[in-house]
Amino acid sequence: MQAAAPPVALPIAPCSALTSILPGVKKRILLLAGGQSGEHEVSLMSAKSVLAALPADKFEVTPLVISRQGRWLPPSETSRALEAGRAEHGGESLLKQAAGVQGFDLVFPLLHGPNGEDGTVQGLLTLAGIPFVGSGVLGSAVSMDKVMTKLVLASAGIPQVEYRLATRRQWRHSPDTVRDMAAELGLPLFVKPANLGSSVGISKVRSEMELDAALDLAFSLDRRVILEAMTPGRPRELEVGILGNDAPVASPVGELRFHADFYDYQTKYTAGEASMHIPAELPLELAEQVRAYALAAFAALDCAGLARIDFFYVEGRNGAAGQLFLNEVNTMPGFTTTSMYPKLWEAAGWSYEALVTRLVELGLEER
Ligand SMILES: Nc1ncnc2c1ncn2[C@@H]1O[C@H](COP(=O)(O)OP(=O)(O)O)[C@@H](O)[C@H]1O
Ligand SMILES: [Mg+2]
């Protein structure tokens, strides 16, 4: 049984963006996109949407694409990469280019996964003394790491599935201790690298025979791996958007539906494989609980600006209560005009343009 969340009625945010950005004084924004993760292409698509949406009378936006090798591309190569939707080569190393960020009022690090969403770029921007959109070093780093996230959320009383942490050293030197962890959790279970995203390296282990291969794969990608009990029954996958700094608000709850056995890489990135339902068809009380947990997680993890918080919900059978589990927190969720995060806010009355403008304002806000 999960702990009951306080029965709060959460306000849906108003639709107008605030106006701390003065007319006539354009803010210079550096929009970082691409990066080294499996979500390189998604990031470039999001960046194109953001570039088109930021109102030209308020902002002067300079895009800068980071290649898959982590090198920062000059303007001409950035334009070509945005056109092509990907960047493999070229560019300067990150630290050589970092000083360049100082000519801007704000950076929008629209980067996903390792070396982008995990506190590294946020650290660089903090050292450079330049405001940026989204969570700082702490919130980004902790939210990117599945184990650290679980530790923090557990201390905040937020329900999660059972799990074990295993290290590469354990897998190499005493593999049976890792197999014992799996036995304790039971089958099926999920094996996940602690620090990736996009379902890369994640396996659903259905039989004992599949366990070693799943662990080999996950440990080839990360030093730390989590073994996670499957939810008791196929879960519904619910997502909530959070917007704000120290007084954040929660969007309506959305649901992802798909036919695949789980939301794997292919299902995520093949058009037509999954659909979004906003608002999710849920009893009001349950939707409020999901939103309350999402806000509590955002605060516990010291997130800022935005986050998309993902849950599993297993319906109760024969009149029994259903069970809710927080799955993960994304501090820089997919941000194309058709991505879940902007769609959740659209359902609350926020246009894509108003949402992006609000994020810039939150990035500039004194905290
Ligand atoms: N414990 C679990 N029980 C049931 N399904 C799970 C579990 N863990 C992961 N999944 C499935 O795998 C997908 C990807 O897992 P997730 O932890 O969200 O990885 P990522 O960070 O790569 O998005 C989920 O959306 C869900 O479909
Ligand atoms: Mg996920």
Secondary structure layout:
Layout: E1 27-34, H1 40-53, E2 59-66, H2 75-84, H3 94-98, E3 106-109, H4 120-128, H5 137-144, H6 146-155, E4 163-167, H7 168-173, H8 175-185, E5 189-193, E6 203-205, H9 211-221, E7 224-229, E8 236-244, E9 249-258, H10 265-269, E10 274-277, H11 284-300, E11 305-314, E12 323-330, H12 340-346, H13 352-364
Bound molecules: adenosine-5'-diphosphate and magnesium ion (MG).
Account of the 3D structure:
- By secondary structure, this protein is an alpha+beta fold.
- It has three domains: 107 residues, Rossmann fold (3-Layer(aba) Sandwich); 148 residues, D-amino Acid Aminotransferase, Chain A, domain 1; 67 residues, Dna Ligase, domain 1, CATH 3.30.1490.
- It contains 13 helices and twelve strands.
- It has a five-stranded antiparallel beta sheet.
- The protein is globular, with a radius of gyration of 21 Å.
- The N terminus is likely disordered.
- Bound molecules: adenosine-5'-diphosphate and magnesium ion.
- Adenosine-5'-diphosphate binds next to strand 5 and strand 12.
What structural category arises from helix and sheet content? alpha+beta
**What's the number of structural domains?**
3
What is the beta-strand fraction? Answer: 15-25%
The hetero compounds bound to this protein are: adenosine-5'-diphosphate, magnesium ion
Low-confidence stretches: 1-11, 14-18
Order of helices and strands: EHEHHEHHHEHHEEHEEEHEHEEHH
- Taking the alpha carbons of the first and last residues, their distance comes to 37 Å
Cα-based radius of gyration, to the nearest Å: 21 Å
The CATH architecture designation of the largest domain is 2-Layer Sandwich
Tell me the overall shape: globular
CATH topology annotation of the largest domain: D-amino Acid Aminotransferase, Chain A, domain 1
Number of helices: 13
Give me the count of strands. Answer: 12
CATH superfamily of the largest domain, by name, is ATP-grasp fold, B domain
> Strand order across the biggest sheet?
10-9-8-11-12
Helix content: 25-40%
Biggest sheet details = 5 strands, antiparallel
> Could you tell me the mean pLDDT?
91
- CATH classification class of the largest domain: Alpha Beta
